[in-house]
Amino acid sequence: MFDKLSYDVFIADPVPQDVTDLVPNGDKRMFSPLSITLVSGDRDAVLVDPPMTIAQTAAVGDWVESTGKNLTHIFVTHGHGDHWFGSAELAERFGAEVVATAGTIEQMHRNLAIREFFWDALFPGQIPATDVVATEVAGGTIGLEGHLLTVVDVGHTDTDDTSVLHVPDLDLVVAGDVIYNGVHQFLREAQGDGIGAWLDAIDTVESLRPRLVVAGHKDKGLDDDAERTVRETREYLLAARTLLAEETTALGFFNAMLDRFPTRLNPGALWGGATALYP
Asked: Which intervals hold domain Metallo-beta-lactamase (predicted)?
């Protein structure tokens, strides 16, 4: 009989960006909190979406080590650097294999190519030296002590070529940035029908009928209830689509979204999207 699985989530707190301008509501520009998930069996474990900075990576490594589990795989849900820049260092520390879909690996290379003038500009000296060491997930599944964790491609969300990790034996989806939980969503790549594609991806996650969803960016004071997080992520996108058609300026859109979602963390993420959607 297979041992039961469990999961735990490490929340890396928001990190200040190295910019001087404030968000229109007066907030300092920050990066959203990051969720790093460990799915564990009795002996082995799989880590999902390692963090970005040197400090975050060290903290996550110590957290994994404290569990006493043997880390076999590190899975990356999508190519944004905040969800994988620490992967090579953690893979070396634990002797784990870094895996992702072919599309995500392509996006990882693109994020590495813009690292110097985007990621390093925002967080100078804070990101570890790294390369893309991920290989494609064999057969679309990761084995964990006899259980199969299934990789599901969902397409465009807050970036292209996104995937999620479905853990049927826990009724769990580790959703990366398909689902957000109490944090303003990243809309910088929502041009064209980006919102429509993202809504389709949410439908795919919902079709898996999870009871629990770990969002890639999460308010650590909130639970992982799937029904709520899926519904709230969808509501945010529907509101954004409506307001993009109504508002004529980035500031108007920002203020209207903030009025509708006043309790979400990090309005700076919303402002970053607004300025990209209203060039």
From this structure: 33-217
Mean pLDDT over each residue of the chain, to the nearest integer: 97
Indicate the CATH number of 6-277 among 1.10.10.10, 2.30.110.10, 3.60.15.10, 2.60.120.10: 3.60.15.10
pLDDT of residue 245: 96
Please give the DSSP secondary-structure letter assigned to residue 2. P
- Name the residue among 135, 131, 176, 181 with its Cα closest to residue 156: 176
Q: Give the CA radius of gyration of the chain.
A: 18
CA distance 246 to 224: 33
Percent of the chain with pLDDT over 70: 99
Would you list the domain boundaries of the chain?
6-277
